Amino acid sequence: MINRRLFIRNAGLGAAGLGLMTIFPGFALTAGSPYVLPRSTPEEQGIASASIRKFLDSVAQSKQEFHSLMILRHGHVVAEGWWAPYSSEHRQQLYSLSKSFTSTAIGFAVTEGLLSVDDPVIKFFPGDLPVEISENLAALKVRHLLSMSVGHGKDSIMILEASAPGVRWEKTFLNQPVVFKPGSQFMYNSGASYMLSSIVKKVSGLSAHEYLRPRLYQPLDIPEATWTENFEGVNMGASHLRMRTESLAKFGQFYLQKGMWNGRQILPEAWVAEATSKQIENGKNDSSWGFGYGYQFWLNPPGGFRADGAFGQFSMVLPEQDAVVVITSESMDTKTTMQLVWDGLVPAMTGAALPENSADRKQLRNDLKGLKYDPPKLGIHSALATKISGKKYLLDHNPFNARAVSFKFVGDKCLFTLKEDGKTDIVIANGMNHWIREGNLKPSAHSLFSLRRIDFDSIVAASATWQSENTLLLSWRFIETVHGDSLTCIFDGDKLTIKFLFSVPRLQNKPDDRQDLLGQMKA
What we know:
It contains 16 helices and 21 strands. By secondary structure, it is of the alpha+beta class. It has three domains: 4-90 and 244-369, Beta-lactamase, CATH 3.40.710.10; 99-210, DD-peptidase/beta-lactamase superfamily (Beta-lactamase), CATH 3.40.710.10; 384-521, Calycin beta-barrel core domain (Lipocalin). The strands form four sheets. The protein has a nine-stranded mixed barrel. Strands 2-1-11-10-9-8 form a six-stranded antiparallel beta sheet, with helices on both faces. A hairpin with a 5-residue loop joins strand 14 and strand 15 (426-432). The longest helix has 15 residues, at 190-204. The protein is globular.
């Protein structure tokens, strides 16, 4: 069991422990530092460093855009890495991995007697019910929300988000036709996860996020998590949770330990077993999504279960191997991402410690420290820079309500400034052929990205490069989200055209759906 005494012992007070600190980047123990998972060498925990290096090679060859990786074995972190400009101290956007935290909140509420999984859903929302309650709606239970077996004909989340202003999402959900008998068939339904979050608030008086704070976040020392709410003050439930990679690893380890943490049974073992076992069939064991579904957890082909989010956000729990694998990424082919783990990492986990191999371990350390995504590197200089530096370009009418932009070249950086109607100017410092991260922030209200489903603040890693004498490329990675953006700025006399390419269509080799911005230099 993980506890502070075990951590101190494994972190080491002598030379061996100090050596571990240098082997694994980002690891340090200082007075008053937050609780971190104990570190170890791969070989001590039965994995060859060479096998992890081979896995990293497979990731690179697959073209999957990993942002972070953490591998735990026997409760110890044996490998961890972040692809720069992503780094350990920043939160990561989790998409549907959030659902497993919503399920956990329900588990605590059940444990405290606030509800039962067999409670009818209509019980909690008497003011939101349709005039006529169908037999199927009356039969809908909390367990059906948990197991994605509501009986809707399609996922309801987009319908909820499109509710008229001021209309409760619960009312919208309960007015959707329940066309199949609840529990009879699996259909992924993010609206069900929202309803679970709403139920937690109904029975506890707290948002799911606040409800989890003393029950999960504080015991596991996860202080940095944020979770977006809708206008009712209900956490989204299905998505929009953000936390650090190590916090995701703690969550996976917590479930691997069957709800035990630091010597305390925080969540009953029986609930963990129920939530992570097959509650409904969802396929024919023909894909990583076809091995069954629990309570907002997917079952893995090689055994165990996982919390799983779009674009490759994973906290994979492998009880047979006594292991947890955490990945954050922007992958368009998450089937491949998972298959890399099933084929490369799982078979490499042996039943006993392996002889230490200092050469392989050093190579792995270097591999992990060297993970990065370089920005586009073309031209650093253009004669045009001095002519346009600091000049304001007034923009034609556009759907972003953007009024003007300017580019100021100072030393080895380009300061891009955006002026919007009724908002504070946005300034992003772009390194010429290198990333600049410090001081760059994309606020949630940033109009250029209002259509990008990134509705929260994020630090921006930004770079600039000249594609030609009159074309400047700005590359931005919103490192507390999954995504990024690029702006191709074409200067023609006193005219400016800005073309967008969001990271998702870029990875899909598709054009962006935003119209070009057109502007003219202010006289």
